[in-house]
Specification:
- The protein has a domain of 209 residues.
- The strands form 7 sheets. It has a 3-stranded antiparallel beta sheet.
- The protein is globular and about 70 Å long.
- It is an alpha+beta fold and 455 residues long.
- The N terminus is likely disordered.
- 40% of the residues lie in helices and 14% in strands.
- The two termini are 33 Å apart.
- It has 20 helices and 17 strands.
- This is PORR domain-containing protein.
- InterPro entries: PORR_domain (IPR021099), PORR_fam (IPR045040).
């Protein structure tokens, strides 16, 4: 049997001989009585990191949205630490253990980080010379306001948690995994100790079923038919005139809203029929029993798209860390290679590699870098963001303005190429691709479109 590299070169040579032929849905290669579709061969033999596969589909506005959130997330994390202290103060040395969560590498000082936001944090030394940190009166008022917003929207958060349980195979989920979604759907800090017990008519905490469960689970108590209606169904108005209490999850044929990067219009024009077929293809509601679906089938994958669409619709910012989705693969019957599915359907979802962990956006929920509908907690976070003191001047990027952050190395990102403060040349590369380079740079994406929408 020939060496793998030799065989690959032979296949490539045969492919090059066929390049003068008109483009069809695929090029067929014959080797040793085996027929191999070119696109299948490329997907099998091409190895690329997620960053490499997604950078050409980068949406500048959504990258800006994520960049603006970076420092805010550190501040909100510190708020939560201080909230848990009896007097809401803590010695600076005790914060050292949270360096990884704050993403503040040595030798940078945490005290220097805090001093940059004097409107939110106060530092003082006690009689022994120990440096302490606390919140300003304004910050305490903001934290109190956040608590009121969370409490006012608690019933809606309980609905979302119940609907997550309704989508799961066994109608129960590990409490630990739901906790990963706590900030994303607006659950309080005492989510596990108190909040889960406030809605006994919806769900209950059950002990682990050893040896299969590693921890406690949250189990659905009562099935609510009116909650088994997807957000897509609500927007489409398909349930108008029907009693929601009689609703039964079924096969759906609703099209998913899609937003593609502007530089893909020419490439996508040849795939409109395939995309149209995908949109027309029926799929099982996320709330219906999916045990009979075959993993890897078109029906299985499209239902997974619907599940992810529903979960992202529940989130406050219509954005979530991808790890939080992959944790639920077994419970929601989603593909093992979930990231590949997200990347393929980049008209529905947008994956950003900015930061230590990837994030996924629901495209339809954003206009530019802003959510179209802002949850009260999003408005509150914007208020906190306006009080963070890391700004000196504003720098223009394309049509958007982004704060220029002082001590940039202090907030160095958790991944490569994380700076959003680009010069003009980099900005053009990130914002839009030249038409002349489309043939080379979009090769992988064409393959993904073909694989995602072929019949």
């Amino acid at each position: 049997m020939p060496h793998r590299n030799v065989r690959s070169k032979a296949l490539l040579g045969q492919l090059l001989l066929n390049l003068h032929k008109p483009f069809t849905n695929g090029v067929t290669l014959n080797t040793n009585n085996n027929t191999l579709n070119y696109w299948q061969w490329r997907l099998m033999t091409t190895s690329k990191r997620v960053q490499d596969r997604s950078k050409r589909k980068r949406v500048h506005d959504l990258e800006v949205a994520l960049e603006k959130h970076k420092i805010l997330s550190k501040i909100l994390f510190l708020f939560e630490i201080l909230k848990q202290e009896p007097e809401q103060v803590v010695p600076i040395k005790d914060l050292d253990r949270y360096r990884r969560q704050i993403n503040l590498p040595r030798p940078h000082k945490i005290s220097a980080f805090l001093r940059k936001s004097p409107k939110l944090f106060e530092l003082y030394k006690d009689q022994r010379g120990v440096l302490w940190c606390g919140m300003t009166k304004l910050a305490e008022e903001l934290v109190e306001e956040e608590g009121k917003i969370i409490d006012e929207n608690s019933d809606k958060a309980a609905e979302y948690v119940s609907r997550m349980l309704m989508m799961s195979v066994d109608k129960r989920l590990p409490l630990e995994k739901i906790a990963h979604f706590r900030r994303d759907i607006g659950l309080p800090l005492d989510f596990r100790s108190r909040w889960v017990h406030r809605y006994p008519e919806n769900f209950r905490v059950v002990r682990p079923f050893l040896p299969y469960d590693e921890g406690e689970n949250l189990e659905l108590v009562d099935w609510n038919p009116s909650w088994a209606i997807t957000e897509l169904e609500k927007k489409a108005g398909v349930i108008e005139g029907l009693r929601s209490c009689d609703h039964v999850p079924r096969l759906l044929s609703l099209a998913f809203p899609m937003k593609f990067p502007p530089n893909y219009k020419k490439v996508l024009s040849r795939y409109y029929p395939q995309i149209g077929n995908f949109q027309k293809r029926e799929y099982l509601s996320p709330y219906a029993d999916a045990r009979d679906l075959k993993a890897g089938s078109q029906e299985f994958d499209k239902r997974a798209v619907a599940v992810m669409h529903e979960l992202l619709s529940f989130t406050i910012e219509k954005r979530v860390v991808t790890d939080h989705l992959t944790h639920f693969r077994r419970e929601f019957m989603m593909p093992q290679k979930l990231m590949r599915l997200l990347l393929r359907h980049f008209g529905i979802f947008y994956v950003s590699e900015r930061g230590r962990r990837f994030s996924v956006f629901l495209n339809e929920a954003y206009e530019g870098s802003e959510p179209i509908e802002k949850h009260p907690l999003v408005v509150w976070r914007e208020k906190v963001d306006s009080l963070i003191g890391y700004r000196r001047k504003r720098k223009k990027i394309g049509t958007l303005e982004l704060p220029d952050i002082e001590d940039k190395d202090l907030f160095e990102s958790e991944s490569e190429n994380d700076s959003i403060l680009l010069d003009h040349k980099q900005e053009q590369t990130m914002g839009s691709l030249e038409d002349a380079s489309l043939a080379d740079s979009l090769e992988m994406e064409i393959e993904e479109i073909y694989a995602a929408y072929q019949d």
